[in-house]
């Protein structure tokens, strides 16, 4: 779900509400309001006092690095109005010049390479969050934009440009609406052709320096993908051997010589299983092979090679914290870097001359901002300073990493009694009077193959600082970042084991003297929305209330109605609903069929254009839980998809959520 940005600069307009209209019989009336693209049911009017308290938190914003536009200017994505757009920054803390102006947010910004025949960038834009993204070219000289793809109900993503900018590779569903093929477009003539049509989900990774070969990969699941190479002259596709037959791969890039490659994988090494995804170097001609992050017992999440061939930068994800590393090429020796703030690191981009490295830094107490490292001088310079709504950033709360024991045992050395330990980030209000027990919100991430990390969240900060609520953000089994074994612990028939981890967290809360086990709420989006519903179903007397955003209510109906191009990808994680045994499991564990057990107050929020979790998943659980006599709050935006990316929509949703917590968790 897109980050919740925010301002209530036009609160009177954005939050205007017509008088509610009762729908249904007198004893089961649903109070429904329609305001522009927003439909709300049973949601009370948002009090002015709450709007005022939220105002500054919803006025925070960040800036994310997309690359270099030229030798001196960064391309960044940031929001100054309703949606995130492309901006240019040409000096440290300089003006952010807005380049795109659309009512829909732009994404996937890819600037032209330094040796390209034209200057500008490619970007993607969909319609109302439907994720049928079309690709556009923004020309730096004319300041005009040109549509590059068919403009139809197709998804076009994953742009890679050749070194001279003459070729653009991307993934598209244009051929049949289901398979994600790889296409290559001649940027001079405009002619495009499909170069990989093998079926399944493919992505382009990197052009060889001479532009005649293209590294590609077929994605099956987070634990399984298959890399290969396309000869663009002949069209021949050659798949690379995968040690062990099955492994995960994250990124492939040619070495400067165009023969060797760098890649991230958890392939076995010398027959030994690898838990984590390491950065590797392989030269097929000489047989040279090297693991470049062998001394880091964590996943490598990102890497990039400088155009001048002198350096490689990569990021390791160490218990949710990003660590930046720099190697010289071709000897792979570590290069000293300036000290960075503790947080998340991403958006790596070397300058055209290779002497500087741009990156995005984000922490629990600071929104994303662009920074640049001068490699030779070992100096870190801040290029953007994003707003925090006039708030005192010193009051922001950084979370503590905690681990709590769950129901099963494992020999990992982290627990004295052998019980498996689950990591979580714990945001605790400061200055709590002695003896006062804190209400708790458990925030559960989506994916499920995602990972909660300690990034900046104005919502968490509002809960902690303004409402005095403790926030716990667990990484239950099945989360990424903790090795392949942990990642697979919730697959298929083991789905509800992750819900049992939430039960273990409730036990941990009950044992903490500062936390109030009688006032616990759960909140989550997408798969996290399923986890909210499942937790309410299994622990109705231990959870006061839940907020489900674009969540799955029945895996069978979800798989039936999700977009065609996503169905097989999700079957790999959840199981195949066409298998009678799996269909029976879905019936047994899905919250829709256990809705009679959901007796706590529930708030369901959904985007009408969601291609991932269709809006019908929300409608059916709302109807079923209302059958218990529960006056479920329901919010539907007709101009949103899988999450809320427009500022006014996100503002209203968060305000309604805070009112929900006040009424059902805090008893205000």
UniProtKB/TrEMBL annotation:
GO molecular function: hydrolase activity
Keywords on record: Hydrolase, Protease, Serine protease, Signal
Peptidase S9 prolyl oligopeptidase catalytic domain segment(s): 456-665
Transmembrane segments annotated in the record for this chain: none
Signal peptide range in chain numbering: 1-18
InterPro entries: 6-blade_b-propeller_TolB-like (IPR011042), AB_hydrolase_fold (IPR029058), Peptidase_S9_cat (IPR001375), Peptidase_S9A (IPR002470), WD40 (IPR011659)
Name of this protein: Alpha/beta fold hydrolase
């Amino acid at each position: 779900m897109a980050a919740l940005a925010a301002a209530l600069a036009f609160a009177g307009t954005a939050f205007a509400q017509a008088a509610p209209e009762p729908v249904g019989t007198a004893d089961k009336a649903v109070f429904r309001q329609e305001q522009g693209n927003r439909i709300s049911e049973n949601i009370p009017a948002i009090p002015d006092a709450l709007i005022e308290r939220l105002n500054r938190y919803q006025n925070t914003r960040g800036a994310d690095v997309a690359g270099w536009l030229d030798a001196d200017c960064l391309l960044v994505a940031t929001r100054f109005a309703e949606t995130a757009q492309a901006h240019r920054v040409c000096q440290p803390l300089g003006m952010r010049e807005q380049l795109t102006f659309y009512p829909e947010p732009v994404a996937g910004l890819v600037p032209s390479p330094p040796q390209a025949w034209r200057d500008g960038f490619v970007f993607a834009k969909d319609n109302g969050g439907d994720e049928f993204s079309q690709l556009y070219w923004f020309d730096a000289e004319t300041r005009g934009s040109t549509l590059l793809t068919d403009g139809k109900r197709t998804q076009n993503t994953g742009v890679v440009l050749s070194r001279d900018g003459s070729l653009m590779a991307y993934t598209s569903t244009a051929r049949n609406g289901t398979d994600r093929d790889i296409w290559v477009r001649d940027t001079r003539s405009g002619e495009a052709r499909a170069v990989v049509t093998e079926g399944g989900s493919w992505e382009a990774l990197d052009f060889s320096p001479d532009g005649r070969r293209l590294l590609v990969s077929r994605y099956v699941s987070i634990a399984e993908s298959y890399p290969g190479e396309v000869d663009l002259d002949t069209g021949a596709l050659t798949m690379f051997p995968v040690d062990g037959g099955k492994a995960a791969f994250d990124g492939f890039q040619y070495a400067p010589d165009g023969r060797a490659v760098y890649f991230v994988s958890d392939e076995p090494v010398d027959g030994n299983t690898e838990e984590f995804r390491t950065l590797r170097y392989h030269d097929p001609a000489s047989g040279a092979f090297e693991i470049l992050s062998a001394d880091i017992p964590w996943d490598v999440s990102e890497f990039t090679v400088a155009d001048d061939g002198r350096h490689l930068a990569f990021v390791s994800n160490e218990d949710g914290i990003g660590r930046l590393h720099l190697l010289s090429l071709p000897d792979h020796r570590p290069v000293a870097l300036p000290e960075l703030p503790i947080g998340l690191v991403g958006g790596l981009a070397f300058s055209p001359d290779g002497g500087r490295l741009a990156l995005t830094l984000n922490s629990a107490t600071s929104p994303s901002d662009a920074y640049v490292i001068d490699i030779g001088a070992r100096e870190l310079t801040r290029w953007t300073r994003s707003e925090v709504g006039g708030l005192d950033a010193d009051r922001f709360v950084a979370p503590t990493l905690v681990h709590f024991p769950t129901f099963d045992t494992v020999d990992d050395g982290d627990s004295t009694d052998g019980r498996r330990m689950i990591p979580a980030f714990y945001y605790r209000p400061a200055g709590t009077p002695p003896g006062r027990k804190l209400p708790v919100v458990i925030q559960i991430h989506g994916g499920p193959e995602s990972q909660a990390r300690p990034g900046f969240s104005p919502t968490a900060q509002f809960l902690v600082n303004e409402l005095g609520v403790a926030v716990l953000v667990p990484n239950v089994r099945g989360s990424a970042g903790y090795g392949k074994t942990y990642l697979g612990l919730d697959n298929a028939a083991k789905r509800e084991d992750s819900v049992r981890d939430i039960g273990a967290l409730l036990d941990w809360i009950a044992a903490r003297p500062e936390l109030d086990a009688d006032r616990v709420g759960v909140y989550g989006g997408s798969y996290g929305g399923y986890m909210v519903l499942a937790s309410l179903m299994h622990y109705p007397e231990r959870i006061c209330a839940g907020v489900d955003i674009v969540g799955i209510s029945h895996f069978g109906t979800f798989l039936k109605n999700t977009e065609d191009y996503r169905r097989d990808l999700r079957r790999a994680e959840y199981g195949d609903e066409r298998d009678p045994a799996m269909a029976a499991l879905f019936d047994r564990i899905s919250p829709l069929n256990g809705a009679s057990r959901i007796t706590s107050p529930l708030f369901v929020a959904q985007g009408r254009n969601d291609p991932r979790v269709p809006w019908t998943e929300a409608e059916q659980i709302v109807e079923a839980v209302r059958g218990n006599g529960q006056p479920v709050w329901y919010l539907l935006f007709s101009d949103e998809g899988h999450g809320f990316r427009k500022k006014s929509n996100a503002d209203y949703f968060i305000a309604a959520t805070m009112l929900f917590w006040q009424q059902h968790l805090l008893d205000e």
